[in-house]
Amino acid sequence: MGQLKKSITAAVVAGLFFGGAGVAAADSWRELNLNTSGASFKGAWAWQSPKRIPSGLHVKGTLKDEKPKDGHNVYLRLRVYSYPWGEIRGVQGKSVKVDEVLSDGAVLVTKEVRLHLCRDRGSLRPDNCTPLQVFKRK
């Protein structure tokens, strides 16, 4: 009976350890550095666990206008799963802290986020943007 109890305890401890490792992997942060002419974003991203609300792609860092005297603003342009495009706007000539969880209306089913950094060049010239980054939850 003593040996069975030790085996069960070892199995429970192993299950808790490896279960915790899965949750930690869901929240592991990765570097995200985007640069385009006149704009930069330096930060990190991580997929939050579906057990967390809101669940989705967590992005945090600094959005910066690299050419403060050019009269143009900067923004992160993003699209969650199949929802319309949205923006996280910067402030012209300044740096802004970003700490956002990008999730869709159903919160727990966010499967894909597309994101890129742009400099708003007005209505007569196209914005210059980084290549689109696609983040997929596995």
Give the rounded overall mean pLDDT. Answer: 83
Helix/strand structural class: alpha+beta
Give the proportion of residues in helices. 10-25%
Beta-strand proportion: 35-45%
* Assembly context of the chains: single chain
Work out the number of β strands. 9
Radius of gyration, in Å, reads 20 Å
Structure description:
The protein is of the alpha+beta class and 138 residues long. 18% of the residues lie in helices and 43% in strands. The strands form 2 sheets. Strands 4, 5, 7, 8 and 9 form a 5-stranded antiparallel sheet that branches. The longest helix is centred in the N-terminal third of the chain and has 25 residues. It is elongated and about 45 Å long.
Topology, element by element:
Blueprint: H1 2-26, E1 30-36, E2 39-47, E3 57-65, E4 73-80, E5 86-89, E6 95-102, E7 112-120, E8 128-129, E9 133-136
Antiparallel strand pairs: 1-2, 2-3, 3-6, 4-5, 4-7, 7-8, 7-9
Features:
138 residues, alpha+beta, five-stranded antiparallel β-sheet, 18% helix, elongated
Give the structure's gist in a few sentences:
The protein contains one helix and nine strands; from the N terminus they run αβββββββββ. The protein has one helix at 2-26; strands spanning 30-36, 39-47, 57-65, 73-80, 86-89, 95-102, 112-120, 128-129, 133-136.
